[in-house]
Amino acid sequence: MLDCLIQFLKYWPYKRAFHVFAILVVEIVFIIIFGLYGRYPPELKSEKFNALFPIFADVHVMIYLGIGFILTFLRKYSLSAVTLCLLIGSISLQWYIISAGLLNYMSGVTTEFSVTVDTTNLLFGDFAAATVLISFCVVMGKVTVLQLLIMTLAEVLLYVGNEYIGRSLLFGFDVGATIFLHLFAIVFGLSVSRMLYIEDVDESKLSTSTESNLFSLLGTLILWIYWPSFMASGAIPGPPQERSMSNTYLALTGSVMGALCMSSLTHENGKIRIEHVQNAVLAGGVAVGATADLIVWPFLSILIGLVAGILSTCGFVFTPTFIHKKLKIHDSCAAFSLHAIPALLGSLVSIIIPCFLNQQNLGGNYPELLPAVAQGRSRAGQSIAQVAAVLTTIATATVGGLITGGVMRLIGSLQLDGNVLLPIADILDDEYNIHIEATDLPPIHIHNQRRPSRAFFSRASFSQFRNNFADMSNISESESLPPPPTQFNSETGEEITGLKDASTSPTCNRRPRRLSLNIGHLYSNGSECPTAYIKIDEEIAVGGLTNHGLEFDKTS
User: Fold this and answer.
1) Are 407 and 454 found together in one domain?
2) 329 falls within a domain
3) Buried-exposed string 146-174: b where 16+ CB fall within 10 A, e elsewhere
4) Among 53, 152, 153, 517, which one has the highest count of C-beta atoms within 10 angstroms of its own C-beta?
5) Within a domain: residue 2?
6) Based on the structure, what is the number of domains in the chain?
7) What local confidence, expressed as pLDDT, does residue 265 receive?
8) Looking at the structure, do residues 401 and 472 belong to the same domain, yes or no?
């Protein structure tokens, strides 16, 4: 039976679009589960909703706008990044609510299985979506949508189980999800990528532009601004929640200082690299997360942020080659430097800080913040529990990521005719997933030699010759050129004489930066701008670059 299924999937003509049917099947199953077991809380206190909803709205903006935009730094993959961010987030939210209900039933929290839909579960569902999106940063652009679906379903389930072990069984603390979200997500993503290792990527696909970097910086700003709300969402209302927001803000400012200073120090000309601004300035929020509600010394938050920004920037500078060549892990967005390094720093702080906390400096919330210590566990014992939570998270993410990556390899080989990942030409390319209309082409005006009129080349014809670039500055004077074509005045119809090679013409005072040519050379008739002739579909157009764009006179 399994062999028949494998053979069917391997030779099915529509296997590239198999993710469509898989997503629909998953969604139908979710709808059935929500229909049978979905419940709203019987009683909802308006005070709780009014206090929680603004934080939920802020976190919601972070996940979809912040992460979505920060992934647009690659010029040729920005559309796919935002689209897949929305898809992954939607699947993760629904699956988390179902998984949380299943866990509550299996752990005895509820006597019967139910899927509770309230603001709290929606908020924590966004946390689960963030977990998968961080892992997505590692494998972005290399896997199919079907493989991403498999990764999302597996990771959310493991995330729910690992968080239950860390919080409910080990009584570890992690208010800002440094351990259970960031550390888990990056280790899981790196483990998946290890199973899907790719040695080379087309360097042109890694190109950026001013526009793509600007949109990515917008995502950075959104995350940076709303990160304190993310931290406060899991904190106890009152002084702990206020400390969470304040410590996070201070740590973020510290990471800005550390990241920008270290970026300048590691540049040969003392300049700031834009990728460090897009990522490393957020490292303080990752590092302070585990202890944001416990830190009662403001200077410590700033120090953590400063160190996190410095270490994260060093990670961007020094670790990518080591991770790729030595560990055989390709990290599309260098997420290791933003999430793994600060998360390990934050985990270390969470191990040390219990030794300095007591009833006096934490106040009346001491039993809620450290319940195990309040019930008799020593402060050293709490530190050991934090070590256990960190190691459990790393182990769960590593094993789960390797197994999930193996399943994704199998799916890829069936869907991509034996290839584990997308072909090199399709990696980090929007055109594999997104239909792109060529709406940004410059206008090309064609003037008839007898009666002036305006027309446009078809997009297909323009695309035919735009792919071959002729840089006129590279034409040598000794190069043999064909005789220039005959040109006619568009108004009088008289022949224009005196055409010369523009590459040696002293009268040409403005040269085109680059012309898209299929057949042709650049000539000048003594006018201000050089002209060119192009052959398209057996027709020859003569023209040049003007202030209005590319203009051509049709001669035959």
Assistant:
1) no
2) yes
3) bbbbbbbbbbbbbbbebbbbbeeebbbbb
4) 152
5) no
6) 2
7) 95
8) no
User: Which of 380, 398, 432 is where one domain is finished?
Assistant: 432
Domain that holds residue 196: 60-432
Beta-bridge mates of residue 515: 470
Of 373, 380, 331, 377, the C-alpha closest to 351 is: 380
Residues in the chain where the model's pLDDT stays below 50:
440-482, 484, 490, 498-556
Annotate 515-548 with b (16+ C-beta within 10 A) or e (fewer).
Answer: bbbeebbbbbbeeebbbbbbebeeebbbbbbeee
Residue 530 to residue 521: CA distance in whole angstroms = 10
Q: How far apart are CA 157 and CA 394, in angstroms?
A: 15
423 and 448 co-located in one domain: no
Residues 407 and 448 in one domain: no
The runs of H, that is alpha helices, within 363-415 are 366-369, 371-374, 379-415
Assign 487 to helix, strand or coil: strand
H or E element in which residue 20 lies: helix 18-37
Within-domain flag for 503: yes
Tokens 């040409």 found at? 508
Residue 46 lies in a domain: no
Among the listed residues 125, 135, 33, the one whose alpha carbon sits nearest the alpha carbon of residue 84: 135
76 shares its domain with 182: yes
Task: Report pLDDT for 405.
Answer: 94
Q: Are 279 and 338 in contact (CB under 8 A)?
A: yes
Q: Which residue type occupies 527?
A: S
Rounded distance between C-alpha atoms, residue 487 and residue 218, angstroms: 50
> Residue 359's pLDDT is what?
85
- pTM score, two decimals? 0.78
Q: Determine which helix (DSSP H) or strand (DSSP E) holds 461, and give its type and residue range.
A: helix 459-466
Predicted confidence at residue 444, as pLDDT, reads 44
**Coil/strand/helix, residue 328:** coil
Sign of CA dihedral 453, 459, 460, 464: positive
